[in-house]
Design brief:
about 270 residues; 8-stranded parallel β-barrel; 11 helices; globular; alpha/beta; about 50% helix
Amino acid sequence: MPLVPTTDILAARRGSGALNAIGVEHVTAIIEGAEAAGAPVILQLSQNAVRYHGALAPIGSAALAAARAAKVDVAVHLDHAESPELVREAVALGFSSVMFDASKLDYADNVAATREIAELCHVNGVWVEAELGEVGGKDGVHAPGARTDPDEAVEFVAATGVDALAVAVGTSHAMLTRDASLDFELIAALHAAVPVPLVLHGSSGVADADLVEAVRAGMAKINIATQLNKEFTAGVRAFLDENPTAVDPRKYLGAGRNRVRDEVTRLLSLF
């Protein structure tokens, strides 16, 4: 089936899972998990994942091929790209959408850089997510106490022309515990004020019940990475503990892949 626009997936569900892959095992696990749930999914590759592979084209092309062969709708998204060159490469490869992260810049420079990327992407039919401030866990504004101002968010969206906005409402990246405290009143206020879908980064640190409540309050795109990495690592560890002489990577990586697949199915069924 053809690659699906990210906007179509967001329109199809009240809350859409946006799940990060690192390797091909993650890619296949995310798609198999979505198929088992009977749910569309946004498959994400971050700039850090690209850096790990040394280039976007090999892992990006694999993700695009797997998405096109899937039995459910799959969009392929570039996550947390700070490099305009990487965005251009993703657009050329055929990604559904990109998240351009200029949040380390001051407000005026962030607006200017993001507007330029949005214009480039829109000409090529690619959807753009941006961030106001910086998500916690990356030394920035989405630290637990940080909050996005609704008026500033409205101004930012109007000035940049982006299609979605990642906001600070109490989450933090790379959390290993699921005890983040979300500001549901702020989510509702942002949802009422901001005319584009809201994105929750750092969702691995949020308990199931709070993820459901965040969707009800107005979050449209739920980004999850660390939770999947925890499951993958647990699967590999368990297999090697039980099979200490194993040397075939397909066996232990497959065990990690299966854990991720099952967690993807569970999470997508929540939303």
